[in-house]
Amino acid sequence: MMQGGKMTNVPKRTSNRYYLAFDPEFDPEKCHMKFRMTYDGCLQSDGTAQHKHALRREFHPQLKRLWEVDPNLKVFADNGIPRLNMLADQYTRLGYRFVPLATSDLSLIAAIDILFLRPGEPGSVIPSGDIDNRLKTLFDALRMPDFKDELGGYLTPTVDEDPFFVLLQNDKLISHVAVETDVLLQSTHSAKGDFLPNHARLIITVILRPYKVAIGNMHFV
Fold first, then answer.
1. Which residue range forms the structural domain that includes residue 39?
2. What is the pLDDT of residue 27?
């Protein structure tokens, strides 16, 4: 999952904290750029393309707002919209103008820490295989799609989705993944009273750092 640096892929578990990927060089005390995204809704273990792109559309406005308020990103945006247009033009594909945050051009990698709240009885253990599958759905939603069928039928962006903000150019730029699971205490039933086992509430902490310092990523050092 990582370009540059070293990573151990063997999952590790401590209590209800689960490491899907472990980067020994990652130090949360020396974070370079840190922010959080949230999601509250269905998270499928075998997500369809439509489901994954629906998730992208949930994260898009959050990342758009990040580009507006984060000092590291305002350096790029302070020169006006043309700078964002340059990025969007560079990553235009499938009828969309994507603006990824972590890219190989900038040598940026992402450490992701997730608080994963899901329905269940206190003390119940969520199977690691289910975590892996649901996180695969999430990671696909955090990156740019590669093929038109990954858009799940959303073939034309709305006015508010031009450009379309995503976290990752591709999921190889994820260096570290830690997941803490717990019980979601809020009711997870549909309007008809049906139990929704795939409901999840996620708080996603992202820490970006360059794996190779260059002029273009000095603001992230």
1. 12-220
2. 66
